[in-house]
Amino acid sequence: MRRSIICCLAWFSLASAVCAQRGAYTAPTDLDQMVGQAETILRGHVLSAKVEAHPQFSDLQTVVVTLKVDRVLKGAASSTYTFRQYIWDFRDSSDAAGYRKTEEVLLFLNPNSPYGLTSPVGMEQGRFRILRDAAGNASALNGHGNAGLFNGVTAKTTARNLALSTEARGMLGRTTGRVPLAALEETIRALAGAQK
Predict the structure, then answer these.
(1) Residue 103 structural domain
(2) Can you give the pTM of this predicted structure?
(3) DSSP per residue, 144-182
(4) Most exposed among 1, 91, 152, 185, judged by the fewest C-beta atoms under 10 Å?
């Protein structure tokens, strides 16, 4: 019975589509789908990431991540935000599933499961590292190198008559690689507003 509960718990925590916490697979998800599926979208710095057993299921390994919140793009969050993510692949236990202290990230987080678990939408697709050049210009790159992130999004923004800056419209033409953080956040806000 306990194993059945653990298997069900793992399934529900990953039901949003599974790509890469190492051993996981996910369906490709575009930016519009990610915005729609996410309950919370926020940018911040990792304060801590600790691997520990789930409080109800001691055989279930999780990572508890606490962020200092810099910006909330969808949903609600205070100045710090903590979430618990199931560790899909045992190798992720050694490096806290890739969450690194002080790292700046942009996360699209699914709603919490009844067991208090969440994960980024599309796993690594919904987890962006924020990179800054020598001049301080910020760009964003997800765990898939942003591949497929903007597929079909231009048509969706046009159909909804969303007003985007020239930089944001240019970003939507990209097929892979880093994108300007400001343009990405502008587009996320516009898509989230249109989906209300």
Answers:
(1) 2-194
(2) 0.86
(3) TTTTTTTTTHHHHHHHTT----HHHHHHTT--SS-EEHH
(4) 1
